[in-house]
Amino acid sequence: MGGGPVGPRRPLVRRPATKADLDAIIKVVKDGFPDDPGCNYKFPGRDQYPGDFEKWTRLEYAEYIDQPEKFASFVVTATEDDLVDEPIAVGIWDIAVETKAKGGDRGINERRDANREHMVAYGEAMTRSFDRSFARYGEQQLHLWMLITHPDFRRRGAGTQLCNWGVEESARKGGWILTVMASPMGKSLYDHLGYNLVGCETAKVDGEEEKVDIYALEMPQV
After folding, report:
1. How does pLDDT run across 143-156, given as a tens digit for each residue?
2. Which of 31, 91, 92, 98 could lock onto 145 through a cystine, CB 3.0 to 4.6 A?
3. Which fold has domain 13-219?
């Protein structure tokens, strides 16, 4: 993935993520998050402490893959030039929103790449946003928890493929609501796909000017 794909483009393919994909997923997250305001807010030291960022990212995504009853984990892969079934985008759907996830605290008290107070403020804003906008749907929703595309492969449909899984699964379930909480960077994709903005929360520590907005969007399914 260095300077972008060259030569004939083959279709991108969505498939379930496995533990064998973790190295590639870490690269997608590491390269795909620098322009995301939420990542900058929570992990301002990821370039200074890349080992910490990679360690906790690996544990986080391993936990998603290890909980298929809670999360539906997917990658979109590319096969072209020197890439063979290489994950270039990752998406995590919460398919059981009222089931508590298993796992750790993402290293909030020990990782050096993170701002602990910002992680807490961001998590609290996410909880407020979900409760105000989506709690009324209970289990009858599919919540897009995470979507990241490598910068070299953006605007080629990978994000849409990951979102389309929710549309397909909603139809199988008889029309469950699709919900997502997006950063300013991701909101444009969901706007394009027909999601409706239903709320906005701000992650901010008292006494600081730095902040980040989190948008709540939903797509009712018929």
Report:
1. 999 999 999 999 89
2. 92
3. Aminopeptidase (3.40.630)
